[in-house]
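[Meeting: bench + compute handoff]

Bench side (C.D.) handed over the final construct sequence. Compute side (W.E.) agreed to return the predicted structure before the next meeting so the bench team could plan truncations. Sequence as handed over:
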Amino acid sequence: MYDVKYLFSMICYFITHHYLIQPFMIPTSSMEKTLLVGDFILVSKIHYGLRMPITPISIPFIHNKIIGNVRSYISWIHWPYYRIPSIQPIQRNDLVVFNLPTDKKNNMIDRKENYIKRCMGLPGDIVQIQKGICFVNHKKEKGFLTQEKSYIVQTHNSPLNEKFLKSKMDIEEINFIKKIKNNYFYQIMLTRTNAIRIQKIFKNIFCIKKQIDPIYFKENSIYNNTYPKWNRDFFGPLYIPKKGDTIQWNSKNIDVYKHILLYEHPDNHQKHYKLKNNYYFMIGDNRDNSYDSRYWGLVPEDHILGKPIFIWMSIDWIRNHPLNLFSWKIRWERVMKSMNKESNSLSLFFLFIFCNMFYFSCIHQNHQNDS
């Protein structure tokens, strides 16, 4: 009897996990302060259209690797890409979970590494970054209270109280640069609000300013590093291609769009090519500590996985020692927090499904233990 219940619960969880909603954990700080390291989120797979599994034969609930380089899936048996129509389109500034296009270790789309970023550029948009500020279609972004930027902070006579910053202001990324005579220099990731706050709190702060790369600085890790000279703070203008666009390849744009050409038709050497996919420009809220579209290019629509809807759990741990369980603290203010300003009924429905699956799994486990 218990075996049948266990099998039924596993089947229900498998269907929910693969076709409705999937839990993820945030491992890096690229989306702070929107998403924190240790946030556990629920991602809807049907908001942007359910992408049907491409690799049907795999070990359940393991994304791409079992251990080391041992894959959890069979790549030579796969289905063609197909997506069920979406409930809503991706909108500018949406948070989006997708598969990293440049993941060369996994050749199947649905087994590439999962990333989460903010969609800054939609198909047909023109994106440009000037002095670290993003412009879309020549309009300045509104900005977010949670958006972080790298600041250079200089104190006089005494260093910063790093313990206070971390414990009382939840500022994690603090790097001491150097000391010159009685002056201390730091590089700190701050929101605009926190930058103003620490300047008021610490009387020994002599200077605080954003760290902006100069326009003439060429950042070699930027995906278009041939022509012109782009970096994280001076980028573009870049046109985001849309499905049906005809790209005319020439010496000026081949380096900008070569990853699209290689992806859509690696053996095509025509000068004109009609695109099969919409593309998106993704960027992290922690602008100076985010590996995003500025570095690896645009995201094809077939790499889109889903929409984050809830933070169901959030654990604050020591980042250098995450396995130290005794240091874990639950961020209660983030538990069951909606990712949207207005929770819609569909998001609540997904949360209901997740909670019920979790509840019945626990009940079943208790029955097993009691027996």
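W.E. noted at the follow-up: Residues 243-277 form one domain. C.D. will use this when planning the next construct.
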